[in-house]
């Protein structure tokens, strides 16, 4: 946008200098607004046409049951007016203290804040939030109100556990949305950008907003990164290898060795199919796959298909049969080795554990060790994801899947993003729409946005039997291929890697799951969360991890006796799995065995995008 500037101020030593303010060019502004208006009109027309074609939109006005939960909470809150009045008086006292200290600051006195944001709260990182008295008042007012609101709803008596968690979760969503950092007039950084650019940031932000609405076909899909900056097989997911086998649900990738000798026993990785496998192969410097290859493993990875309506009837047991069981047969043909060491990540770990239980029932011992990355097996305490699992919501989800044959990957991504709304939603609202900045190219966020669909039959089975009923933890409650499975029959040596700040698979829940097996178990707790806690290469020299010689009865007892080690847990895992390597053999090249190479890694399946 072209610019004009305000005329210079007359020189007057007695008057303060007024900084130049950029004014918008009226011609450029008119063109931009015309372009925005035309794009908006087209998007609205297309959205209304789709709504009409879909029969007028969603069938339920409140599919998440949020309104009912808050109605119950309000009813019980009003039944104890004395407690509510006490909470109001507490908030009023906090505000009186804040007003008093703010007045003192206006008169130049030093004061202590009534409340301060958490150290990791990046919403208030701009210096003006502390240095400017007005913005400091706005910040503290918000923090006091947020604390009061959350503590008040959390102290309501008589709510069942699920309703209480739902009220707490959606109260936090509201509190996060109303943060002063999310609005132009109460965010000092945005105000500065608006003045300095003559409002150009807001015009550009509006264009970003419309572009994201267009990308989501009427639904807002916030751009987290520059999607044009990455291309699979070119600058992301680039570890050399070949696809050597495939089924309707997965492609099996064998990676090219980088050492003259390799472990005799191959390594099979079963990633989740909620997202794509290349979280373990983002770039060379943080690729677990590349690192494992460099340690002398013959690495095979299952790359799951991004299913459409033609795979709607594929169930959880189909993923077992066409996934790890088929991969075991293929690996034997490719290498001549019947046995493998296996890794399962998140939902892939749940499948691996189920497969191990099925194999135990069938007297099949081809998996000699199993590693589980942030894997839930006991869903008693499923964390905040359990907010989305009740009969009303499951019925709604199954209705959506019945129409399409699958669950839209974008809906799953939104659910996960809500667990960390300030980092994965509101920070991008400020950056993209208020500051008008282009999203930064970031491989992890590119992967995070590259979501996959869930086949209707599989997803319904998983949500109901695992999350809702916790049947996997009950011996014989789940049957696969007509065989009742029991995790207690699994005697394979296992290593569980969990992450202390994991919001998706809370580590104390994964610890409970680790106790379901009857074989030797090593538990490792990494720092950080569901992704960063796993993708933590040694070269980065970040974070830490905890280990202990034996499992304790409870997770708290285990942590109390655990030893903390700085850096990455990857070498710890490699030493452990090395016990089951079964010696060394000359390196194997993909395609040299009984399975010819079909195509280069990362293969075709992973490149299928959602429409």
TrEMBL record:
The keyword Transferase applies. Residues 294-536 form the AB hydrolase-1 domain. Its main location: cytoplasm. Residues 120-292 form the Poly-beta-hydroxybutyrate polymerase N-terminal domain. It is found in: Cytoplasm. InterPro entries: AB_hydrolase_1, AB_hydrolase_fold, PHA/PHB_synthase, PHA_synth_I, PhaC_N. Residues 1-26 are annotated as: Disordered. Pfam families: Abhydrolase_1, PhaC_N. Residues 1-19 have a biased composition (Low complexity). Keywords: Acyltransferase, Cytoplasm, Transferase. Gene3D superfamilies: alpha/beta hydrolase (3.40.50.1820). This is Class I poly(R)-hydroxyalkanoic acid synthase. It comes from Azospirillum endophyticum.
């Amino acid at each position: 946008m072209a610019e004009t500037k305000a005329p210079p101020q007359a020189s007057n030593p007695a008057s303060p200098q007024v900084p130049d303010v950029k004014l918008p060019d009226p011609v450029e502004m008119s063109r931009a607004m015309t372009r925005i208006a035309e794009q908006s009109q087209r998007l609205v027309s297309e959205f209304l046409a789709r709504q009409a074609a879909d029969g007028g939109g969603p069938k339920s006005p409140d599919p998440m049951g949020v309104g009912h939960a808050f109605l119950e909470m309000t009813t019980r809150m009003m039944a104890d007016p004395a407690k509510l009045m006490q909470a109001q008086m507490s908030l009023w006292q906090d505000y009186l203290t804040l007003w008093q200290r703010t007045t003192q600051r206006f008169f130049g006195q030093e004061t202590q804040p009534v409340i301060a944001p958490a150290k990791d709260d990046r919403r208030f990182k701009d210096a003006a939030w502390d240095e400017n008295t007005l913005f400091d008042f706005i910040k503290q007012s918000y923090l006091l109100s947020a604390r009061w609101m959350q503590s008040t709803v959390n102290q309501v008596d008589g709510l069942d556990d699920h309703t209480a968690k739902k009220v707490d979760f959606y109260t936090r969503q509201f509190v996060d949305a109303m943060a002063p950092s999310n609005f132009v007039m109460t965010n000092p950084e945005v105000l500065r950008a608006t003045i300095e650019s003559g409002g150009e940031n807001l015009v550009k932000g509006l264009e970003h907003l419309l572009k994201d609405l267009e990308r989501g076909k009427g639904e807002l899909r916030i751009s987290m990164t520059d999607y044009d900056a990455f291309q699979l097989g070119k600058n992301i997911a680039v570890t050399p290898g070949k696809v050597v086998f495939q089924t309707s649900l997965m492609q099996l990738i064998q990676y090219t060795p980088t050492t003259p000798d390799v472990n005799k026993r191959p390594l099979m990785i079963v990633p989740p199919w909620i997202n794509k496998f290349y979280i373990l192969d983002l770039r060379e410097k943080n690729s677990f796959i590349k690192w494992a290859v460099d340690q002398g493993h013959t690495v095979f990875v299952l790359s799951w298909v991004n299913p459409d309506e033609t795979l709607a009837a594929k169930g959880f047991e189909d993923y077992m049969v066409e996934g790890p069981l088929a991969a075991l047969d293929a690996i034997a043909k490719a290498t001549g080795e019947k046995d493998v060491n296996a890794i399962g990540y998140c939902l892939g770990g749940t499948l691996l554990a189920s497969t191990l239980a099925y194999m135990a029932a069938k007297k099949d011992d081809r998996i000699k060790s199993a590693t589980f990355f942030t894997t839930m097996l006991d869903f008693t305490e499923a964390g905040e994801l359990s907010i989305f699992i009740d009969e009303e919501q499951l019925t709604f989800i199954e209705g959506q899947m019945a129409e399409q044959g699958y669950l839209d990957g974008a809906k799953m991504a939104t659910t996960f993003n809500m667990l960390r709304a300030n980092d994965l939603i509101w920070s991008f609202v400020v950056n993209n729409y208020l500051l008008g900045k282009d999203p930064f190219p970031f491989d992890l966020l590119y992967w995070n946005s590259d979501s996959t669909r869930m086949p209707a039959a599989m997803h319904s089975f998983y949500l109901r039997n695992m999350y809702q009923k916790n049947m996997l933890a009950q011996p014989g409650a789940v049957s696969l291929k007509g065989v009742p499975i029991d995790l207690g029959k699994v005697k394979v040596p296992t290593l569980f890697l969990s992450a202390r700040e994991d919001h998706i698979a809370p580590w104390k829940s994964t610890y409970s799951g680790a106790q379901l097996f009857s074989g030797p178990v090593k538990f490792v707790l990494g720092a950080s969360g569901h992704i960063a806690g796993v993708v933590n290469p040694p070269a980065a020299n970040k974070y830490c991890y905890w280990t202990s010689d034996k499992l304790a009865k409870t997770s708290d007892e285990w942590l109390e006796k655990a030893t903390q080690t700085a850096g990455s847990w990857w070498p710890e895992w490699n030493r452990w799995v090395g016990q089951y390597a079964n010696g060394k053999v000359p390196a194997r090249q993909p395609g040299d065995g009984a399975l010819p190479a079909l195509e280069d890694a990362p293969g075709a399946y992973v490149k299928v995008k959602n429409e």
